Amino acid sequence: MYTTLFKHYWLKSIRSPGYYKNLIVNIFMGLTVLYFVVILVMMGFMFPKLLEEIAPQQDAAATFSSIMIYAVIALLMARYLMQPLSTLNIENYQVLPIKRETLVNYLLLKPLLNPLNYITLCFAIPFAITGIYPAYGTGGAFRFLFIVIFLVWFNTLLAPLLKRKFNNILVGTIVFLMIGAILAGLEYFKIFSLFQLSQHLFGFLFGNSFVWIFVLLLSLLAFFLNKRYFAKNYYPENFDRKIKKKEAESRRFTFMERFGKIGEIISLEIRLVLRHKRTKKTLYTAIFFLLYGLIFYPSEVYNNSPGWMLFVAIFVTGVGMLMFGQWIINWDGAHFDFLMTRDIDTHTYIRANYYLMLALCIASFIATTPYFFFGREIIIYHLVALVYNIGVNIYVYLFGATFNTKRLELSRGSSMNMQGVSYKNFIVMIPLVIIPIALVILFDLFSAAHIALIIIALMGFAGILFRETLLKVIEQQFLRRKYALCTGFRKKE
């Protein structure tokens, strides 16, 4: 029966109308995965030397053991945000002689068989050879790999359980961040060291035979907790009855109506974001990516690279616009015909989307002002990035959005969901990021990165100065593409 169920899943995937339409996107994603596989393999071989440089007083295996609990928590949070829930059209099978337990087990086992879950092994296997084997021998290397696999299972099973039990992703993210902050505070004030606990725990697991079975029991515990949850919520109506209408869904945002039709359209767009699963998850992901700078700004290696500094500055100061800009028109696809029959002219519609993206950009910049504590250079890069985002990137996104005629299904989740995505979404990234970074890198070869920043800032100021002219160009483009957009949005993948 499990073979039959997985066969049905495979046939459903390849028979989907969007499977072959998105072939270019699938190829691009495959090449992206291959790139990360190569990077992870190289990191696995090089990581022991890096750990020995960071902590020369102990071997690489001991240092890595001390961060494993933190790695498990971080990966669990990433899965909580990005891993899609395993679904099944259960009504089609309930009328057939199939045991309820079989269907539940299939739902739980399906994500475990996803090859992307095991991309971690591309790092773990080389590290087991170069880092674990010298300290614990062949047996320890194999125990390390088993523990990694079982922890992947544990995270894969626990993340969807947390998603189902605590439906509010934003609250869950805040809880994860609070836990991380508390652990960091305890570590900083030397009240409790999770590093030492992790080092002793995993050192014991790597060095003793059969003790690693306890990690397998941890995965089995997550499995049975999921089964217990499904035992109480097996029928679809049980899920639907638990979901109440939130205040955000009925919120009118009446204060926006004072700005006329532009304000009314912005109010509609805000409610659209807060009412649909895909847009809400994208919003939460954008909030999470505001922390992206913490990976780069504390490191002296990246601080000495103007290209990286500008990339991070453009990303974090415009993350809201970057996450939503590509689909600023597409997310209206379900009711686009309705909008085009209303008393809304092109001038109003384009400017409403412009002001919405401008607000997202400014909000992202304000939210990232704490990065200014990292130094004066960060302030300069953020200000240049803000001007470039407002003066260049907004217009590029608005113009590029008119070419994407694929309708977005907003009721679907956003995690690992490529529905509505085409190669055009990747082409538009070239003028947004690659051109300014290439300019900075080129001038940096002559120790003149500051001149490149001045040029980029002037480009942004020029865009702000000629705003009306550029918006009129976008209006004309929208009018040329309007009927192609209407035709494309009527098609469902």
Keywords:
mainly alpha, 2 domains, 25 helices, globular
Provide the β-strand percentage band: under 5%
The amount of helix comes to: over 70%
Topology pattern, helix = H, strand = E: HHHHHHHHHHHHHHHHHHHHHHHHH
Instruction: Report the biggest beta sheet as strand number plus sense, adding barrel if it closes.
Output: none
Question: So how many helices?
Answer: 25
> How far is the N terminus from the C terminus?
29 Å
User: Based on CA inertia axes, which overall geometry fits?
Assistant: globular
What's the Cα radius of gyration? 25 Å
Look at the helices and sheets and give the structural class: mainly alpha
Q: Which stretches are poorly predicted, pLDDT < 50 over at least 5 residues?
A: 239-253
Question: How many E strands?
Answer: 0
Q: Any overview of this molecule?
A:
The protein is mainly alpha-helical. Helix content is 75%, strand content 0%. It has 25 helices and no strands. The chain has helices at 2-14, 17-21, 23-54, 60-82, 91-94, 100-109, 121-165, 169-188, 194-207, 213-232, 236-242, 247-250, 260-275, 277-289, 293-296, 300-303, 306-317, 319-325, 336-340, 346-367, 376-401, 423-427, 429-444, 449-465, 467-490. Helix 4 (60-82) crosses helix 9 (194-207). It is globular.
